[in-house]
Amino acid sequence: MTIEGPGGSGWQREQPSGPTAQEDDDLDRAFGTETGAVATRSGPQRVRSWGLLLVGVVLAAGVIVVVLGLILSSVQNGVGGFVPRPEQSAAQFTTAVRDVSGIASAKTADPTKTSLISYDVVTAVQADRELSNARRAELVRQVSAAAASSGSTGVHVYAVIDFGDVVVGVSGSAEVSARRLAVAEDVKAIGGVLRVHAVWNTDGEDGGRSDDATAQRVIVETAGTGVGLAAVDHAAKEIVLKEFPGATVETAVPGSV
How far, in whole angstroms, is CA 7 from its chain's centroid? Predict the structure, then answer.
């Protein structure tokens, strides 16, 4: 760093001395004599920097791959995932209900797709014909518990239990399932009624099942005709609609359902 000024014979350049000059010399050696100069890295330094950057990228990519792998694994196993596994739910439910006392057989139909990522799994259950009303109620409760525990993301599990004189739809709701059984037994007690089906109305666009009152369907098999048939139909509707307002109630000839 220099100082210029007028001298005896014109402009002269004076070289400063002291601490300031020493500092300027140090800066010049480190960054060059030009004001905008910066230190440049050598070839090995650049290679080392790029190497560290590459290692960081590889490590970050490895972490991402591991995390994605864990997420995909949990999804495929149905743990907090969004991929329905109806076959797994069906197998789990069938195994559970076969151990319930009072069940003679259980056969699960192929899963029914009710929407893009939703399935209904329905199992036809044959119950022993000599069960008491209390034992029937307990069996429905146990099957409902199995349906609730076997359901998974996008999969709804149901059973249709045939007790002989009544056929009852069972869902994961023990309360609604018990009401279906009670309604079926009350309708069966009407004179002239041979068999009652208390299930779901699956005539909607998706064919799915629901525990909503309006989604219930009761079919009454009776041999009555004329006035007798009208009396049965009226009595059945009073019982059903009191418990399930808006439900569908139908009469049918024996053996047609």
Answer: 92
Give the residue among 217, 169, 166, 168 at the shortest CA–CA distance from 189. Answer: 166
**How far is the C-alpha of 159 from the C-alpha of 161, rounded, in Å?**
6
Phi first, then psi, for residue 7 (nearest 5°) are -125, -170
Give pLDDT, residue 199: 98
CA distances from 99 to 58, 105, 131, 151, 184 (A): 53, 10, 16, 18, 25
Element (H, E) at 29: helix 19-31
What are the pLDDT digits (tens) for 137-176?
A: 999 999 999 999 999 889 999 999 999 999 999 999 999 9
What is the reported pTM?
Answer: 0.69
What 3-state class would DSSP assign to 64?
Answer: helix
d(CA 130, CA 135): 10
Average pLDDT of every residue of the chain: 84
Q: Return d(Cα 174, Cα 142) in angstroms, integer.
A: 8
